[in-house]
Design brief:
5-stranded mixed β-sheet; 12 helices; globular
Amino acid sequence: MSHSSRTKGGFRLRCLFGAAAVALVVPMAAQAQDPAGLEEIVVTGSRIARANVVSSSPVTQLNSEELTFSGTVNVEDLLNDLPQVVAGLTSATNNGNNGTATVDLRGLGTNRTLVLVNGRRFVGSSQDGTVDLNNIPAALIERVEVVSGGASAVYGSDAISGVVNFILKDDFEGVQADLNYGISDRGDAKTYDASVTMGGNFADGRGNAVVSVGYLNRDSLLQGARSFSRDTYTDSSGALELLGSTTTPSGRIDAGSGLPDDAPYAFLPDGTIRPFQGGTANSYGDTYNFAPDNYLQTPQKRYNLAAMTTYDLADNIEAYAEAFYVNSQVNTQLAATPVTGIIVQADNPFLSAQARQVLANRADPDAPIRIRRRTTEVGPRNNQYESQTYRFVTGLRGDFEALERTWDWDAYYNYGRVVREEQSTGLVATSRFQAAVDCYGANATPGCVPLNPFGPDTISPEAAAYVTVPARDRTVVQQEVLGASISGEVFDLPAGPVGVALGGEYRQEKSSYSPDFFASTGDLQGGTNAGPVSGSFDVYEIFGEVAVPLLSGLAYVEDLSVEAGFRYSDYSNIGSVTTWKAGGSYSPIDEVRLRAIYQRAIRAPSISELYGAAQQSFEPVSDPCSASSNPSAAVLAVCQQQGLPAGLLGTFEDDGQIEVTFVGNPDLQEEKSDTWTFGAVVDPTDWLTLSVDYYNIKIEDAIQTFGGGLGPALAACYASGDANSAACSPLGQPIRRDSTGEIIPFDLPQANISDLKTDGVDFQADARFDLPNGHGLSANVLVTWVNSYEFTPNPAQPAVYEYAGTISTDDSAIPDWKINARVTYDGGPWSLSYRFRWINAVEHRAFADAEAIGDPAPVLAVEEVGSVVYSDISGQYRISDNITLTAGVNNVFDRNPPILPDTISANTDTNTYDVLGRYFFMNASIRF
């Protein structure tokens, strides 16, 4: 399907956009020399360049030295250590990774964090618009500025939780080679990274060009290589047990097949069957340990090429261009495909005599015999992602003098394109597996290969080859932005000049997703089934900002200023929206500045949310009706209404996954957020700076799947007490169960249905002490306290989930306290640095879920994960002006991640906690 449209308001906004462009072009005819004066800078969060500026929005800055001292070669690792960030996708994300790395400010969603490069948008790598941080060339990063809080008035859609702006080196001279190597103290998880950057001036210094090439190779690491992840744990009514999956490599007959007590039966090596035995604390029983074949560190290869140039066309007109190409290859790997839903006939020739006898005496001989099995003979499922990213920016910028004042202007074109291809092996086609099981007698499918699913290692190589199908899909994302802006001072007030910025932008987003035949027909087992989708939208925008100094130089009013901004946007799919900001700062004395700002931000729905075709997913959610969920009598009543057989009430077992189909919704509207921040910056001396800021972000009409996701949707359904209630009927179709007790797959649509709210406090301290002999001591401390994180899946329902200070089995933890601190001693040619990372204790999110819907507190083996502290040490030695060596150890004390059973991967939160253990890194930087 393909979608694109324009609204009636487009003509009006195109006229306004054209007027803004004319306003920029006309002054260029009267270019003049920029008068001498204070250097003015632009801080992320505003387009007004000001001297000695202190932002009204909290801004955290990381420089390139932090990358070196931490041994970071992928920028997401550095960002995820920031207290304001809840971990997104990383190299430790295996199940659920799509080959990208992401950043998630405040834990409000990666698609609500806007990523910029040099103040301009970077093209997303998926249909939800999320940027892959693998595409940012680390060797060219000068600094990273992080604004936490809405910024849509300045930058447009998506800046709900904040902005991450990568500032690149744009005036480089010489040649610099950087070599990085990392390895764990077990001798594995190696990472190699090399880059060469060359730059220089030309045309008598009027121009500068920079070219950087880089290569990264990251080795894979399997979960079987670490003690905490080589086995899979489950929490069974408060007891920690071994449990891989109730799908066995030997085959299993499901409950509801008419067997005694409606219990499942397992196949033994000789083909006989007996009642299925679950896992215990010391044995897997008949379950399958799927952990060892999963990646703990995903392998990656990355090639990147970046080029930037500037050239002075005149004394006050500069042309500039940026070009990027990145090829990133990431693999993920899961255990062998769990084949389910296969029906066998009682006369199957591969059944043993004993199995035939048991089946012949079934209580219900007409019930279909359903089996499930891990296809270990096929091998693990491997997903190979390769993305190619192209980005090109060109523009003109400069200044002119008008009305005895200097004005800066900028006009640019930004083009980005990502082509991402996925190839999967180890998957199984349901139709072929069923045909292979039925490949006997007169009704056999022509060309089928007989398959024996009864017992371990019974699938022949020929049968494995017949049922296995490779899956391929291709995603193309394209972004075009045309923008122009002007900023300067309009007039003077007694307290100083009034600054303004005006501009306009046009942006078009397109993307398409093309799956192969088996995925598009829903025939895959062990992979994602989804149909093709394509769509596009565009937006015309005008924006403006003003900064007004009200008072200065008075007793107890050293400075008092206010600022405001607006943006009017006309979208082709949702119509017109307006965002704005208003704030100010007050300094009673030079050493103290109070600041506050309010911002209204929006996020327009993405192409995948609008037009996404049906996408099959096996969500890691426990069935509320299963025995392991310890359902109450009220929940069991709903289960029975849905069709759960009476014989399975209280005894039903699930495999920890529920099949569901996610679908898009073309009627979606924008999300809206209100953000308040207020705080203080204190400079008591010339060696110390302190800041503290309170933030409050509320998002309304948040786009979520129906009910806020499968887990909350099911919780709301069973809390309603009625299987036919609206909470139990996505798209008006009630959730129902089959004869085995399992939920029949159903559709969950996207909807503007949820609310999100979070508030807390950020604290930052920076200190620098000058010591004798030119030595120095510096320290930086970042602290975030999350007071609350409320998720309301549906405001029409009473359930409000409080997730601050909790850890989830299928999502990243949201600690209520996080600290990141670094102390560095500079001894001239050498330096030593110590970094301290603290993550506070977190409670199992199941308690918050139960409290939200009024259920009793669950009985869990692991109720809480304790605080975790990491210590990192690094040192640097400058052999000469041209050669610098850096080495260090991360996680010095080899702290294992905390165990949390029933998680999506590795018995822990692999994105929040360190899973590699003690890790050594080395860097050599040579410049000449």
